[in-house]
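Researcher: Next entry: HesB/YadR/YfhF (Crocosphaera watsonii WH 8501).
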Amino acid sequence: MTQATQTPTKGIQLTETALKQVLMLREQEGKDLCLRVGVRQGGCSGMSYIMDFEDVSNIGEQDEVYDYDGFKIVCDRKSLLYLYGLVLDYSNAMIGGGFEFTNPNANQTCGCGKSFGV
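Model: Predicted structure:
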């Protein structure tokens, strides 16, 4: 895992590699979007990570916003209960590559790394 780009005081941290990948993907969208990260019920371990771009106008009062040099990561407070301290990394490995979630709150993680249990 690469080093997180911000101090650990942020509830959701991005590595430099993940930030570069997210910025590249956002540029392909052609809009100034933020990244919403959250959880939902389901997945093989009980809860699944969700992550998608969203218009900044959708940021609400119930959301926590983390700024990374002008790029915003948004997480609703309910999801943040399960994600606080999460480190989002990115790997371009041929097998098993993609975004990787390191969640200090998870007591079990499925093999694909996209779901977890608490």
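Model: Note for the record: The longest strand covers residues 33-41.
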